[in-house]
Amino acid sequence: MERLAEDFWNIRGVHRIGGVLDIGTQMSLVRRADGRFVVVDGCALDAAQRDALLALTGNGREVDAVVHVHPFHTLHVEATQRMFPGAALHGTARHRRQAPGLPWSRTPVEQWGDEHPLSDVFDLSVPDGLQFTCPDERVHTASVLLRHPASGVVHVDDTLNVLAAPGWLGALLPQSSLRMHPLLARALEPVAGAADAYAAWTRALAARWADTRIVCAAHSAVRHLPEGGFAREVLAALDKVSDTLDKHRARYG
Which domain holds residue 155? Predict the structure, then answer.
């Protein structure tokens, strides 16, 4: 459990593909102005991580809310709810379908507006031009991105990626700059204008969140950025997928 700012912590979890390759996952913890907490996502915790999280949050009693922001990150939803049973529970529409017995709040996170239930701690953004929940459930490109304005930390699952070597290799090999999801082509809405909408969303995000200094990316790493680095890397990532967007425009108009 790493403290990234005065009121922001990130926990890196284990997520193995085929029971072998650990691609990692994450959850974050944010302290509100009143001293209580919001948990973002859930992951499998080892004993030390669990003890540290519960110690910081008064054995979980000081957690006001839990929010799950990626529609296909569902493995640890119920376990996280058991840790914080008194917290308000927010998630996407797919979370509700996958776990209908849990006490979900009224509106799915991807439908929240500016005056959302966690607006005191987070700005949020949902990518334009993407299928938020793809019919092909192997495509996990879209999510709700959260930014903690007080610290300039962004929590993102899959939509933006950082390529980082696993384990001890990560200390030897440099991590990549921010990248778009590798299955972007399959996530774009199959309609005219989707590629342009996605590009416009990306440019607006780079401008609006330009002072971001830390990005917590699922399945990879925490990326620390220099001043202006977020905008530069997001726009560079958009440039790298220009062929993908052009092919979509050629097919759909």
Answer: 2-252
Quote the Cα angle for 127-130-134, to 5°: 125
Query: What is the end-to-end Cα distance of the chain in Å, rounded?
Result: 47
Question: Which two structure tokens, joined as six digits, stand for 11?
Answer: 């926990």
Task: Reduce the DSSP state of residue 107 to 3 states and report it.
Answer: coil
Summarize pLDDT for 43-88 with one digit per residue, the tens: 889 999 999 999 999 999 999 999 999 999 888 899 999 999 999 9
What's the distance, CA 69 to chain centroid?
Answer: 6
pTM of the predicted model as reported, rounded to 2 decimal places:
0.91
Number of domains in the chain: 1
219 in the Ramachandran plot: left (φ > 0), alpha (ψ -120 to 50) or beta? left
| Predicted local distance difference test score (pLDDT) of residue 15 | 46
Tell me the torsion sign for CA atoms 188, 128, 133, 40.
Answer: positive
For position 234, which CATH number holds? 3.60.15.10
